[in-house]
Amino acid sequence: MHPNRTARSATAVLSVLTALLYPTAAHAAAARHAAPGDSVTLPVRDALAALPVQSENRTGYERTKFRHWIDADRDGCNTRAEILKAEAVTAPLQGTNCALTRGSWYSPYDDRYLDSASKLDVDHLVPLAEAWDSGASQWTAKEKELYANDLDDARDLIAVSAASNRSKADKDPSEWLPPYAGYRCQYDINWVADKTRWGLSIDTVEREALDRQLAGCPDEPITVTLAR
Fold first, then answer.
1. What CA–CA distance (Å, rounded) separates 28 from 196?
2. How does pLDDT run along the chain (228 residues), one tens digit per residue?
3. Model-level pTM greater than 0.70?
4. Rounded distance, CA 41 to CA 64, Å?
5. Which residue, among 37, 35, 19, 17, has the nearest Cα to 27 in the 3D structure?
């Protein structure tokens, strides 16, 4: 056999053995070497293990540094309205300037149905302040805008009751979980997916809380298209 072919075969075998014997390490390496626009699929606990652990720093944070809500496709409806339209249980009526009336929505944070858009907030699953703390402080203004208006992953923005969103504020899963216990596993899974998508870090307390909470949840695979 040609020497180069032998070397390639040995490398391939070693990669397979590594994935079988050390799946978490293999998944973490795959996530680290993926590029923006690539999709990665891995069990959520492996995705959590692959996130970089760093202390948080809120120095210089201002919410206005994340420009939102924008009308990216210039159809007259901004990001908030697009989420409300997409997530409605009963479609609302759309009026002038994308004013939404009637309709109904389900808020999974607190297991409630709501009958008015004014009763809902569109939540950044990973809050803007938390994103800043976790690496977004180093992003360009355009990257911050894209994060704040991300319509390309349904997990990143979610319509929920205003009361539940405001009780959450800028807390991470070590400080706040949805009042409705039946949604907590999905919330933690989506949190890990969001941080993976945007290449954000976690701090030690957040990592420990997620590890503990996800231990009681299905270790389901998540597929994430990397934004950066």
1. 11
2. 444 433 333 333 333 334 444 455 555 555 566 899 999 999 999 999 999 999 999 999 999 999 999 999 999 999 999 999 999 999 999 999 999 999 999 999 999 999 999 999 999 999 999 999 999 999 999 999 999 999 999 999 999 999 999 999 999 999 999 999 999 999 999 999 999 999 999 999 999 999 999 999 999 999 999 999
3. yes
4. 33
5. 19
